[in-house]
Amino acid sequence: MMKYKNIVIYGGSSEISKELIKIYINKCEKLIIFCRNKDEIKITFSSDYLKKIEIIEVELFDLKKILEIIKENVQEISGLIWIAGMTGNATNEYEDLDLAQKNIKINFFNPIIIINELSKKMIENKNCFIAIFTSVAGLRGRKKQLFYSAAKSGLIAYASGLRQKLNNKNIHVLTIIPGYMNTKSFREGNWSAPNFLITQPKKVALIIKHAIEKKKEVVYINLFWKFIMFAVNLIPEKLFKKFNF
């Protein structure tokens, strides 16, 4: 079985992160988990699991503190899975510049700076990987997700550029494009969708694991979204701007 050195999971208190922790706990020397609430992890896993987990509790908005932690506490790593982000409220963000900036920082600016710094900790030519959660929202801008769409679009572009930059160092970069996932944020956001468009956290984690092992460049968590977004992107702007979704 392939053994990684240290793996970082950023956004570690989500249901998907917990499933990924179960998968990778025995595939690496240590898991380094960045999260907002360390108790969410501590109450989920046994003491045996926790011996192999280093939990760093920090707010994603606090970029300066995060970079200091990375510099002082994170040494050689061979894997990074980025999950953190927020949807926000496009109506409020359009009216409030501070809210708009927060969305962009949390979904685009801060992630690319942090991923950039963590990528420098990768052990070159040692089968390393970086897996980045983006969103189907980043594939075409919509008024109901105005700043979120823009931020996720930027993150998709960044992942593509990083993949090209790190290719000669044998560091694999995976772009993850999820659709609806049955997580706490989905449920609390009062989203509704047919069951076939909603993926359970355990299945999401298994798809990510498979994509990393197969060194895929881009993976859709639910293939239905690939076809949906292909159709959406065919709609001309003159017609698309009249839609209300």
Q: What's the Cα radius of gyration?
A: 18 Å
* N-to-C order of helices and strands: EHEHHEHEHHEHEEHEHEHH
- Residue fraction in strands: 15-25%
Structural class: alpha/beta
Number of helices: 11
Count of individual beta strands? 9
Q: Please state how the strands of the largest beta sheet are arranged side by side.
A: 3-2-1-4-5-6-9
Poorly predicted regions = none
Compute the average pLDDT.
90
**Distance, first to last CA:** 46 Å
Largest sheet entry: 7 strands, parallel
Give the % helix. Answer: 40-55%
Q: What's the overall geometry?
A: globular
Overview of the structural elements:
- Strands 3-2-1-4-5-6-9 form a seven-stranded parallel beta sheet, sandwiched between helices.
- It is built from eleven helices and nine strands.
- Helices cover 47% and strands 18% of the residues.
- It has 245 residues and is an alpha/beta fold.
- Helix 1 (15-24) packs across helix 9 (201-213), helix 4 (63-73) runs parallel beside helix 6 (97-119) and helix 6 (97-119) packs parallel to helix 7 (146-166).
- The protein is globular and about 55 Å long.
Give descriptors for this structure:
245 residues, alpha/beta, two-stranded parallel ribbon, 11 helices
